[in-house]
Amino acid sequence: MGNYDFYPAIEPFKSYMLPVSDIHSIYVEECGNPNGEPIIFLHGGPGAGFGKKARRFFDPKYYHIILFDQRGCGKSIPFLELKENNIFYLVEDMEKIRLHIGIDKWTLFAGSFGTALALVYAIHYPQKIKRMILQGIFLATESDLKWFFQEGISEIYPAEFKKFKDFIPKKEQNNLLEAYYKRFFSNNIDLRNKAIKIWSRFQLRVMESENIMIPEEEEIQVSEISLALIESHYFYNNMFWEDKNYILNKIEKIKDIPIYIAHGRFDLNTRVVSAYKLSEKLNNCELVIVEGVGHSPFTEKMSKVLIKFLEDIKELNYKDEGNE
Question: Which domain holds residue 235?
Answer without folding.
Answer: 143-240
